[in-house]
Amino acid sequence: NDAYGNGAQASIEGELKKLNWAYEKVAEEKFPFAQADFRVALTNVVAAKPDITVAINANEGLGMPATIRQARQSRLPGKFVAAVGTVAPSVIEVAGDAANGLIGADIYFPAVEPFASNPANLKFVAKSQEMFKYTPDKFMALGATALQVWAMAANELKTLDREAVAKRIRGGNFKGTVMGDIKFEANGQLGSRHYLFTVQNGKIAVQP
What we know:
single chain, alpha+beta, Rossmann fold, 2 domains, three-stranded antiparallel beta sheet, 41% helix, 16% strand
């Protein structure tokens, strides 16, 4: 029950409306960011017998793993879907076997196509593992891509002027980044593709 959760819910419902997708909301539960006990809320959801349950919980360290474990313990019926970007490998590790069957989506996977054959990504992953003994996640990839794009724009324009570089980035295209060939919207927002995945045997399996 915060700006992220309410905004994500509004976005999902807005897209369903655009698609003229007929659905019935049989239950809705809200909670504070720091909450880790969802048993009462899940009991109410289970009683509503949903076909699909969407969990919007940005607390990857505690809240989301707890939501997943307790949902399985409550024998939640139907499909269990996590909001975009809320299920990192660390979430699956903490949630354990309860995460199997979970459906989600995200924008970056270091070892899955089209990233697995991207030279810039391969170099980035190898360097991260060398320096930190850690396979980079999407946050690291986004940070690296941001620096890469800034450097590309500055080198192309041969200036470090903030306004000039920003103007080049907004609405611009950049090839060969960690995240592949990318494009920014006129407002500077990265135009990204979301990849659907399921969790199978404790691993993220991206759908073709």
